[in-house]
Amino acid sequence: MEREIYLDNSATTKPYDEVLDLIDHINRNIYGNPSSLHTKGIEAERLIRDAREIIARSLRVSRSEVYFTSGGTEANNLAIMGYLYANLRKGRHIITTKTEHPSILEVFEYMCGNGYAVDYLDVDEDGLINIDDIGELIKEDTSLISILYVNNETGAVQPIDDIALLKNKIKKDVVLHIDAVQAYGKLKIIPQNQGIDMLSISSHKIHGPKGIGALYVNKNIRVEPLIFGGGQENLLRSGTENVSGICGFGKAADITFKQIDESEGHCQDIKTFFIKKLKADIGDIRIISSKDSSPYILNVSFPGIHAEVLLHHLGEQNIFVSTGAACSSKKRIHSHVLKAMGLSPDLIGGAIRFSFSFSNTQEDIIKTVGAIKDILPKIKIRHGGRR
Fold it and tell me: Residues with catalytic annotation?
């Protein structure tokens, strides 16, 4: 069978074999409820503690500051609503950007309908905010700022350290939440050194299982639970723990951080080679991702085509890519990220996201560019919208 070429790693990643083996072992043998007092429960609880320690160590934070969730979306919801509900007197003004993930934007929209005022920061043509704009927006009643570290569609990397420094100069008690779902395991993040108060991460973006994520909350920050019941996760997130998922997450983090530098260098080489091949072999393209964007993400527009059509043609050749955020792909709307960056409808309509991992090779890129070159003349939109 022809090798699959998987270039949609920002949507999800293939789990490490070691992760799959561990999950299978736990599901078969360590199936006790972590809240049970017998040996099987105690063993499950110990494994959760060990996984929490791995995640905490990767961020250089305390184990007690890491709370497991069902994924990045829940972590974002818990961070924002949990903090705002727990700190009503801190103020009802919140700040974010126009290019956030829907799990941030839709929460802010909800809070806007519940008595909060929201300011949305503009971005430039590279997808970056002007940090001075934050300084102009912070008010006496500003309580929370939430920023996406690495954009999931373009790979734009926001200047988090500078944002935190400016925020602290103006109003230090404003809490800074960072959605690091696309950054964790790819950038070295040290929340306490960077002025980050809360941080959302997800397992399936780093070759771990789906359905598990985590939220870091600085020990000095008060957050209210959104899910009530058995009081798990130190009373912040009730529900029987996903033992195999949590342990799989810990194993994935352990492997990922041991090879973080090697993986980054490899993906940067793959991305650079990809851009070179596209320019040489196709030419009529627009590279949307900036030169300083994440090594793991490349957004390219092919003018005069419908991106979904190209995606499906590539899929028929076992080449898997994306037109943007996987969670929003079924809504069939133009990318709010690319729109905020000022791109024309034609460029947005022809935009494809390629996202890389350590398993991609130069041969993958050669085959992908060759396939695109072959497909484009067949799907090019002609006058009157006919092909």
Answer: 327
